[in-house]
């Protein structure tokens, strides 16, 4: 048996080359995640000297006390590093983090409160938020408030204007209909006392410094954790329009419908005292991956902003694999039909992808007889129709394996491995981070009595990967303490 990260590979079942590629891909993923670990980012962002706080290139005079509040999957490590930087001058720190994050920390003032199993707000989220609100209200004029924000913050900072259960029902309905994170957060803001800039109205005459770890394509500040420190520029009728767009008017609770119909514009106070900084995102992680792989492969950073339904994203990647292999074998005669099909699929998931740049990189790899490593980032969505267990990363990998099956004879000329993983370490309501895809997976699965397509129809990718080869193609790492969306790694090399 060979251990790879937190999963086990049987050398009897797996090709040795495939085992080596899996090890390499997991090393890439680990390096990418390490580059966006909160402690490293805070250390590079924040400096403190006597009465002066430095945030990047900006100076803030500190006349009185510094308070810290935070909410999100990454904010515990952020808070601990802030405490270290402030070197004993921290007045109080309160953070709301996912269950399973808390640990014993010696000599720390940081109050750690857990909530939100499976990224769903609960009564603990509400209680934690009340504690954060009370902390902010206890501040005096001219104190400084540092707000730490990361992915998962929407579930961990929760003060709903409607019954919590009704808000959860609404969120689940939107998620199951493939609503984007921006659409979800627009509705969340309209149903909250603290989201959409409302948190900063609780602050008196104090400076607010928000340090944000982005988990959304394009870093839209108003959408990250539903923008509690960002003025909400959504039109007052946009939330109800989103509900109508997904034909959910007759499905959401009446309390939510009434609240959205009565939604009014909200004015943020003290905006001039608020300073928001994005201190980490998937660009940092992906660039680290490029630097790690370029000594071994011709490396390509394809995109940082892949999004759309996972079915479309899987079709894009399947087309990409076939196109790359054709170009590699015959770089002087580009198959225009395959190229046009790929361009069509690109238009559905990320219009910024440069196919000409990609083609040049493939030709370069072919000329050098080197393998190609393609890195991408983003966050697809899944429309849940079944009752199985899974996540977007696992379903993406499984769909790709199914899509490329009919090309298995052609693809035997290459060693191909795809991996999709969430940088937070958790994919959907499972204990897996992500999963692998490769040619031959489907045939092997059928030999084992498994039908991948049936698992996909039931949104049960976790169920499939748990059974297939005794779970060797699931990667489990646990909470990483950071979150900059998903990372995709695709390796293609001639065998």
From TrEMBL:
Alphabetically list the UniProt keywords.
ATP-binding, Kinase, Nucleotide-binding, Transferase
The record, for Pfam families, names: DUF4147, MOFRL
> GO MF terms on file?
ATP binding; glycerate kinase activity
Q: InterPro entries from the xrefs?
A: GK-like_C_sf, GK_N_sf, MOFRL, MOFRL_assoc_dom, MOFRL_protein
Tell me where in this chain the MOFRL-associated domain is found.
27-261
Gene3D superfamilies reported in the protein's UniProt record: Glycerate kinase, MOFRL-like N-terminal domain, MOFRL domain
Protein EC: 2.7.1.31
Which EC class is this protein assigned? Answer: transferase
Report the GO terms under cellular component.
cytoplasm
- Give the reaction(s) catalysed: (R)-glycerate + ATP = (2R)-3-phosphoglycerate + ADP + H(+)
Every MOFRL domain range: 372-486
- Read off the SUPFAM superfamilies from this record: GckA/TtuD-like
Q: Name the protein family.
A: Belongs to the glycerate kinase type-2 family.
PANTHER family listed in its UniProt record: GLYCERATE KINASE (PTHR12227)
Question: Which protein is depicted?
Answer: Glycerate kinase
Organism of this sequence: Sipha flava
């Amino acid at each position: 048996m060979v251990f790879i990260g937190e999963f086990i590979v049987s050398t009897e079942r797996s090709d040795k080359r495939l085992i080596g590629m899996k090890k390499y891909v997991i090393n890439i993923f680990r390096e990418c995640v390490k580059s966006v670990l909160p402690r490293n980012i805070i250390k590079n962002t924040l400096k403190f000297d006597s009465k002066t706080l430095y945030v990047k290139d900006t100076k803030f005079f500190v006349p009185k006390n510094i308070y810290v509040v935070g909410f999100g999957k990454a904010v515990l490590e952020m808070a601990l590093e802030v405490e270290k930087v402030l070197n004993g001058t921290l007045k109080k720190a309160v953070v709301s983090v996912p269950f399973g994050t808390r640990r014993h920390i010696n000599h720390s003032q940081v109050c750690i409160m857990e909530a939100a199993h499976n990224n769903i707000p609960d009564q603990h989220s509400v209680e934690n938020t009340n504690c954060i609100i009370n902390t902010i209200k206890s501040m005096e004029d001219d104190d400084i408030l540092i707000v730490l924000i990361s992915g998962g913050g929407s579930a961990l900072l929760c003060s709903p204007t409607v019954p919590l259960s009704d808000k959860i029902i609404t969120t689940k309905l939107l998620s199951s209909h493939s609503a984007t994170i921006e659409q979800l957060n627009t509705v969340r803001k309209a149903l909250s006392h603290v989201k959409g800039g409302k948190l900063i109205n609780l602050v008196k005459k104090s400076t607010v410094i928000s340090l944000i770890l982005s988990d959304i394509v394009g870093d839209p500040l108003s959408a990250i954790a539903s923008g509690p420190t960002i003025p909400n520029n959504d039109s007052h009728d946009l939330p109800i329009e989103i509900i109508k767009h997904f034909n959910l008017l007759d499905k959401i609770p009446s309390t939510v419908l009434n609240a959205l119909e009565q939604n009014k514009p909200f004015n943020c106070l003290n905006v001039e005292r608020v300073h928001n900084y994005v201190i980490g995102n998937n660009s940092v992680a992906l660039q680290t991956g490029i630097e790690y792989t370029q000594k071994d492969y011709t490396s390509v950073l394809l995109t940082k902003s892949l999004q759309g339904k996972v079915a479309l994203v899987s079709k894009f990647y399947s087309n990409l694999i076939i196109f790359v292999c054709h170009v590699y074998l015959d770089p002087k005669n580009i198959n225009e039909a395959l190229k046009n099909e790929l361009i069509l699929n690109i238009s559905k998931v990320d219009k910024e992808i440069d196919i000409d740049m990609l083609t040049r990189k493939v030709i370069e790899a072919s000329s050098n007889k080197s393998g190609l490593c393609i890195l991408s980032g983003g966050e697809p969505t899944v429309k849940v129709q079944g009752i199985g267990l899974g996540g977007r990363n696992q379903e993406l990998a499984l769909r790709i394996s199914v899509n490329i099956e009919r090309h298995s004879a052609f693809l035997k000329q290459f060693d191909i491995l795809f991996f999709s993983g969430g940088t937070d370490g958790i994919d959907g309501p499972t204990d897996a981070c992500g999963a692998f895809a490769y040619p031959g997976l489907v045939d092997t699965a059928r030999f084992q009595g498994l039908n991948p397509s049936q698992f996909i129809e039931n949104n049960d990718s976790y169920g499939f990967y748990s059974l297939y080869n005794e779970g060797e193609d699931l990667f489990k790492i646990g909470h990483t303490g950071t979150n900059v969306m998903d990372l995709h790694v695709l390796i293609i090399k001639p065998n």
